[in-house]
Specification:
Protein name: Cyclophilin-like domain-containing protein
Largest sheet: 8 strands, antiparallel, barrel
Domain Cyclophilin-like: 5-113
CATH architecture: Beta Barrel
Strand order of the largest sheet: 1-2-9-6-7-4-3-10
Number of domains: 1
Organism: Stenotrophomonas lacuserhaii
Shape: globular
CATH topology: Cyclophilin
Number of strands: 10
Helix content: under 10%
Oligomer: single chain
Strand content: over 45%
CATH class: Mainly Beta
Pfam family, one: Cyclophil_like2
Length: 115
């Protein structure tokens, strides 16, 4: 499924995985979230509802552009830099194209909607 993230009047295109958590995330759209900096590597925000992770891998090694769900905290994570293997991290999809708008310091408001 194609989605778009609108941040500071810039639109980022992304594709969600065809998985249970990917479909559950898509079912929550549209969302407007306040994305906060985390570890100078990702932007995070709480989701309205937790996603099912049954049958998913125990974790992933995220790369820049990954959209993921961090099951232990129940939050969305959008990576603008690569990071090490993280247990409990489930890939939901991937942003296609530039990530500069995510690399700005401080919180940003993002509108996430189906395309």
């Amino acid at each position: 499924m194609k989605i778009r993230l609108i941040i500071n009047d810039q639109t980022l295109s992304a594709t969600l995985e065809d998985s249970i958590p990917g479909r559950e995330f898509a079912a929550q759209l549209p969302l407007t979230l306040q994305l906060e900096d985390y570890a100078a590597t990702e932007k995070i925000a709480q989701l309205p509802r937790r996603l099912s992770v049954a049958g998913e891998p125990e974790g992933i090694t995220p790369v820049a552009g990954d959209i993921a769900f961090y099951a232990p905290w129940g939050n969305l994570a959008i990576f603008h830099k690569p990071f090490g293997y993280s247990k409990g991290l489930i890939r939901l999809g991937r942003i296609e194209g530039g990530l500069q708008t995510l690399r700005t310091e401080g919180p940003v408001e993002a509108r996430i909607e189906s395309d």
